[in-house]
Amino acid sequence: MRVLIIGSGGREHALAWSIAQSPLLTKLYVAPGNPGTAQVAENVAIRTTNIGGLVEFAVEHKIDLVIPGPEAPLVAGIADALAEKNIPCFGPSAAAAALEGSKTFTKQIADAANIPTATWAGFTHALEAHEYIEATGAPIVIKADGLAAGKGVVVATTPEEAHQAITDIMEDKIHGQAGARVVIEECLIGEEISIFALCDGETALFCGAAADHKRVGENDTGPNTGGMGAIFNPPWATPEIIDESMAKIIRPALAEMSRRGTPFKGFLFAGLMVTAQGPKLIEYNVRFGDPECETVLPMLKSDLLSLLKAATEGRLATVGLEWHPGSSATVVMCAKGYPGAYATGSEIHGLDEAATQQGVHIFHAGTMAEQGGILANGGRVLAVNATGPDLRAALSRAYGAIATIAWEDGFCRRDIGKRAL
Prior knowledge:
Layout: E1 2-7, H1 10-19, E2 27-32, E3 42-43, H2 51-60, E4 65-68, H3 71-75, H4 78-84, H5 94-101, H6 103-112, E5 120-123, H7 126-136, E6 140-144, E7 153-156, H8 159-171, E8 182-186, E9 191-200, E10 204-212, E11 215-217, E12 221-224, E13 229-232, H9 239-259, E14 265-275, E15 278-285, H10 292-296, H11 304-312, E16 327-335, E17 347-348, H12 351-355, E18 360-364, E19 367-370, E20 373-376, E21 380-388, H13 391-403, E22 410-411
Parallel strand pairs: 1-2, 1-4, 2-3
Antiparallel strand pairs: 5-8, 6-7, 6-8, 9-10, 9-14, 10-13, 11-12, 13-16, 14-15, 16-21, 16-22, 17-20, 18-21, 19-20
Helix pairs in contact: 5-6, 7-8
């Protein structure tokens, strides 16, 4: 099979690394890719938002399967554009991608399918949102309705913080049109998990669970980020919780989308809170998580490409997944200043040595190659994954690999997985 992956981050490097191992693969492209994907595939200089250019490339190069990594091209309709050319895409149509593109739409689906979630209200006028906060109090969660690169959610612990979030999002428009509408919802209490499912429109196949570490600082302090690290199958993601989540949160959403004539195909990612009343939906995403992808895929024993092919052909009901024993953990290395302003261009040394350590995988997220060296070129720069017989061993290996990486302008959290341990 000739395959095109769309994206340039750690998630796309992990997808490329996994798919490169498939006996079905004949040629792998990544657009635009990064120095890490260049090790296992051919990079193509086409932006993820250039839908026309990506479709044209897929047609010219006789691509058998396109795998979009990030949400933006999916929400923009890459799957629909490819369908017009009869090119299979493992990702939802623009209509189905509204599950991530609009928080309001997600809540409407949850209400229609009786999916357990936080109580909520939606607003298009700031004054009404401020009045709702006054009546409801805090803690409370404020969400920009549209795509905001993982930074559109504020967990406000006081009414003042909530009012400020409304001012920032709706009045000062820090997220642009994504904040023209907001969802305000109750603050769920519990342990957060990410559940992943492979979907073919009718069947949802469980594809791993992970716990992300969103805040930039130790002990979950500081602003939210795109993700500072993740662990595979956290202890609170018990088999019972996973079964309940698939039965009450994943499959009902799939059935409701199918009922509406917009079947969901692709990775369905449910962010959940395990509460005293059981798992409740926080949000849906329509692609693999990042850095969860880099944490889950090293544990997958099954051939990923054959699974994705089965999904695009509507055959998921006939296949199953196998997993390696043990555990997995990923620690993200970031440029100093992230998630605020940060500098780029500093050189990173020791990556080859780190990658040779037992169980270690170095996934490039925000890097560039220059004159034989690897330079930082983003906020989240490297995803350092390690597998091991248990979580403690996996974390030890990941931090051991980081100790061999020399990068003066980099930092990471030192407490990934601490709560699980």
